[in-house]
Task: structure prediction
Amino acid sequence: MSTSTIQHILELARWAPSGDNMQTWRFEIVAPDHLAVHAYDTRDHCVYDLDGHPSQIAFGTLLETIAIAASGHGLRADVARRPEGRATHPVFDVRFAADAAVVRSPLIDVIDKRTVQRRPMRTTPLSDEHKRILAATVAPGYALTWLESRAQKWQAARLMFNNARLRLTMPEAFETHRSIIDWNNRTHSPDKVPAGALGVDAMTLHLMKWAMVSWRRMSTVNTLMGTWAPRLQMDLAPGMACAAHFVLKAHAAPQSIDDYVAAGRALQRFWLTMTTLGLYMQPEMTPLIFSKYAREGTRFTAQPKLAGAARALQRETEALIFNDSLFPVYMGRLGYGPAPAARSVRRPLAELMKS
Result:
């Protein structure tokens, strides 16, 4: 094989999902059959990633996408994490080998079509066949829990609505939100979330843009108007307007970077398979993130009252989700269309190459 083959693989792999479209990795072609992925988490500035685990799940989605893209060239992708790498900056060596047993994955065709839908979706229930196919994509190490009855969807929507109040009244989260919204590119953003993809109406979007100039403005808006409008549009209404909510659960609780990377690989197979079935998805990770902070005593805010709110949300989350012997690693809502009009795209490959 040649280095151009790796470049072709990376042209697809760069479409892997990452938190807020930050694309926290850079590529180094070491040899014609050897790629090094230099990854980094965002725990130093993102309140949603203080233990690095959400980033590690994203690293897994990238590595799985690389392996899927490589199958189009008849190549097996063997991945190993360098043991000497820092926890915050792991390096993964990917070595490609021709393998007659490798067949082209049908998931290749939807790598660049997979996206997030934050707006309402159809409420058509998932078919039994689609649920069977999706469960098979994450087996044997993982299983799916479905929240699909009207009562269950209401519980999940209310949970997201309550979590959103914590997000929107937290100064630490404000800094993250302000940095990742692209107000200049309303429909397609190469390195952020385009404003048009947020899932709110024009009036709310205009107010959000004005308020996000400073925490002082945002705090004033929260005090005078509350947070119900964005929470209603971004959390409660979409939480009911979907086929179901899902929880991806591991049979064994993740302990290491490699465990979270493995969860990310299963997630990407699930997400791409979902896309082949005409389904769209929105991640719903904040309940898992903040309940974990509360459970482990992780300090995530300087506001004492918000820490108390997180403990209340922990109880609500665990009552809904922690109801068996499995360990939740990812949560979201999904449904059949429509396709989003706005979406995050990706940086050109040249910008993702390690200098």
User: Anything to note?
Assistant: The CA atoms of residues 210 and 217 lie 8 Å apart. The mean pLDDT is 96. The first strand starts at residue 25 and ends at 31.
